[in-house]
Write the structure tokens for this entry.
Amino acid sequence: MSAKKEAARTLDHELTLVRVFDAPRKIVFEAWTNPKHLAEWWGPAGFTTTMNAWEAKKGGHIHIAMNAPNGEVYPMGGTFIEVKPPGKIEFTASALNPKGEAIFENLTTVLLEETGGKTTLTLRTKVLSMRPEAAQYLAGQKEGWSQSLVRLEALVTAKAK
Amino acid sequence: MDSLTVTFAALTDPTRRSILARLAAGPATVGDLAGPFRMSQQAVSKHLAYLLRARLIEKHRRGRSHFCRLRAAPIRQVSDWAAPYRIQWEQKFDRLDAFLKELQKDKKP
């Protein structure tokens, strides 16, 4: 029973994040749709972003790359599905391997709501397709301890049986 | 902070990870746990307090001894497929937050 539930959840591959920003919705929307603004915050701390294309309009192209401090480059390609001021941005995005092939494709929806000068951002991201190497790619994004975590989880699971 | 962030923060420390690995083998007292670490029981207690707050372990009293036991649920959550995405987005949001503050500072001198 619970195994079935687990499988269903894994297939869903959907994630929702909510965050409140102390800024009006107009400014947050601009931070998402203006490539110059996006470059200021996209990617983890210490990363820089190369903006080849971030055409925030329906059908617009996405081609950007995150540059890690160690010199590694994580390119990403995609397409805007919908850009509706002042509160909705939706796009597909794929992480690309060195051959330029999509490792996995996500559909990301960003909704902005304003209350009392603050903006509540709801981000939903859903995996549309995934290549076998995706798991490895994602694991590589975590710090080195991810591997000890996997080992730890194996230990914990073994113990629980 | 959401629970996943708390879990990750707790797991960034190698001593805490060793403690968890030890507890994966079975419950242990604070003294047992302090043994292999060449650090004071007090220092180990600090790490345990952190792990307790992150709900990665539980403490039980048996007679005069406190036993620690691993809680598997948060670790499963971390090893879930979504964790890297979540972390990436949280990191981006941290920067977005800082950027928005910077923008508004410029506008309101």
